[in-house]
Amino acid sequence: MSETLRTEAIVLGRQPWDEKSELALLFCPQLGCIEALCGGIYKSASSLRGRVEPFNNLEIQLVRGRGRWRLTQAQTLKIYPQFYSDYPCLCWGSFYLELWRALMPAARGSAEEGPGGEEASLYSLLGQALEALGAFPHKGVGVSIWMLWRLVGLLGIAPEISSCLRCHTDQVSYFSAPAGGTLCAQCQRGDEGWRLMPETRKLWSQYRKNPWSVALKERFLPSTYAQGEAYLWRQLTYHWPLALKSRRFLKIGERSLESFGY
Ligand SMILES: [Zn+2]
Asked: How far is the CA of 180 from the centre of ligand 1 (A)?
């Protein structure tokens, strides 16, 4: 028996399936990341044509039969032309899509099998990150910091940054992902921590508490953004090991993110 579901989705990617169909990778609030077959997508009358494109936010109808989701209808809720006209914006946006794809294994079971809860929050966070990047196309690194704070919170691995993890002094100068936050010079042992600039901590507290529309208006030095992003990324990947191809293309100004040496 087939099962029909109407839902929203953000398109993470698409790949050829056979001469008549493609396979779309979608992130939905109920199901998380799923693969759905788009039959007849090349026909001029297909409602999927031109809509099932990466970054697009859609209202869709899914039908499940023979162990596979099929995408039967799609209507556009939101598109982001910035991602196709601005290369740095495309790189950061592609990174967010690849990250969401990596966070959850594709092709989960049916609606009943989904664990629920976290998927809806992750869907909402991805939508907000894309919207923030659409509004601030040259602040991909800032959007990433804002998004990573919320993501580590959702996953229950947010670092402690208000004081030293061990002696609780306010005078911290190191950050350690394995220890789970900030450390003072006395408590930092060997090379467990990385030097933390006071400005980075200031940036973090702004980004952690404010909505993106407020946080992204603040201005910091490129090196502060680079450190703030890189340390949060290490915090995430220490707990969730991920290797994403798209991170190689990320730049802050003219420099690659990696060239900052964090
Ligand atoms: Zn200490």
From this structure: 13
